[in-house]
Design a protein that fits this description.
Layout (H helix, E strand, L loop, with lengths): L22 H11 L7 E6 L9 H8 L6 E6 L4 E5 H4 L6 H5 L3
Parallel strand pairs: 1-2
Antiparallel strand pairs: 2-3
Length: 102
């Protein structure tokens, strides 16, 4: 967040996969619940062999608050990749898309 504060989240696994919650959206929900509306970066720690970007639904949730958000993904082994959210989700559907309908 612009003020330097950090909101954390964790995956919430569920046997019925659609009922689960990704750490990205859990952290976003915690931050928004605490009153944050502007974000600078999201960091993803993954057990995967390669840095992993946010899933599609997390990208959509994040883009509504910060279209150019910096996305950093780090593996347990120290591999690191950085993206901008707009490169991961080009031509995003945002609240502005609803206002621009004609």
């Amino acid at each position: 967040m612009p003020d330097g504060s950090i909101a954390s989240g964790a995956n919430v696994e569920n046997a019925a996969y659609p009922a689960g919650l990704c750490a990205d959206r859990a952290a976003l929900g915690a931050a928004v619940s605490a009153g944050a509306r502007e974000f600078v970066a999201v960091a993803i720690a993954t057990e995967a062999d390669h840095p992993t970007p946010p899933c599609g639904i997390c990208r959509q949730a994040l883009v509504e608050f910060a279209p150019t958000l910096t996305v950093v993904s780090v593996t347990r082994g120290g591999a690191r990749t950085v993206w901008s959210l707009d490169s991961l989700l080009p031509h995003a559907f945002t609240p502005k898309s609803l206002r621009d309908r004609k």
